[in-house]
User: Fold these one by one.
Assistant:
Number 1:
Amino acid sequence: AQRVTQPEKLLSVFKGAPVELKCNYSYSGSPELFWYVQYSRQRLQLLLRHISRESIKGFTADLNKGETSFHLKKPFAQEEDSAMYYCALWGGSQGNLIFGKGTKLSVKP
Amino acid sequence: DGGITQSPKYLFRKEGQNVTLSCEQNLNHDAMYWYRQDPGQGLRLIYYSQIVNDFQKGDIAEGYSVSREKKESFPLTVTSAQKNPTAFYLCASSINWGGSTEAFFGQGTRLTVV
């Protein structure tokens, strides 16, 4: 079964500290993975996708097929990074865009 | 202003009544989606449409119905058969139904059953 697991409901760090939001997936084929972010009072939006291998707002995410993980990382957290983060998996031709339950990141001054 | 528009922002419904949530997009996207967002549950897929005049059930379609008569519109009806309809509903669209396609989301509709 296709599944996305985000083990942390809430992650709280201080400004300038490193951040890692965990995401594990279950998928039998070659996964396509995404991170979406929802800032306060804003709509859910794409942060980055693994296929692009990009860094957005200082965030990166590497697909680790051996560990079936796609953790989101940032070396130095900023207060404006506080938001709800969702990991998502594209389920292929028989599936759809599947979301994890989300992790709320709180960056304290 | 391009994008996805959901209306209304807040909706109240009496038990036993059907209610329709509107979703309109002017992005010329083929695919559209409805998700339900509950605290601690993330986003769960209700229905999706790959192209106009076609739609498929998602993971939690029971008690919901949709139509896709026009490319830009994908309304969701919450019927009286939906046992726990109070939730936040998100509509999304993507240029096509496929893997790396970015999904664009509306602002959401909060439905409360009173």
Number 2:
Amino acid sequence: DQQVKQNSPSLSVQEGRISILNCDYTNSMFDYFLWYKKYPAEGPTFLISISSIKDKNEDGRFTVFLNKSAKHLSLHIVPSQPGDSAVYFCAASANTGNQFYFGTGTSLTVIP
Amino acid sequence: DVKVTQSSRYLVKRTGEKVFLECVQDMDHENMFWYRQDPGLGLRLIYFSYDVKMKEKGDIPEGYSVSREKKERFSLILESASTNQTSMYLCASSFPRGRVYGYTFGSGTRLTVV
């Protein structure tokens, strides 16, 4: 059963606007979350993380928000740039182990 | 620059062949993982290893095996390749309980079984 879900397979956004990518999880033991970015024919690369002791983490144009009660996190990219076009995966882990569980990914297209 | 290197970017194999996918990391990581990525299914864990000569099954181990004879090298073996194993294969590594930055991934191997 998929413990981490990304319900939007794709998203298109105009350059300069905000991109919002969503992720839901079911396991209440998850307490650490990551976002990865993946270009075609390359491996995923780490983008940003958040611990469950926080509800927001910001790094430049990227901000991740965590709503623990809703078991939901989101990635905001502001402003979006064409180079942000990629597949974005969210991942979650529990403190009891160091295995990450990945969502199915959202393909973001930023239109110039 | 730290690296996870996968030996091949693209492979084409015939049904029934035994296929070896190699992964080497230079970060002295204890943990290594093999995933496959398929459209709409995300990253699915095949096997992982927390130490030399140690292996654990992931979510989809059927049709695969692994070998970890040295800390830096983790090999994925398709015992008898089938067309449903056509996929992008990703190797990753991490420190034990090194959750801060998650995994470091290789560039992937695109395997086509014909």
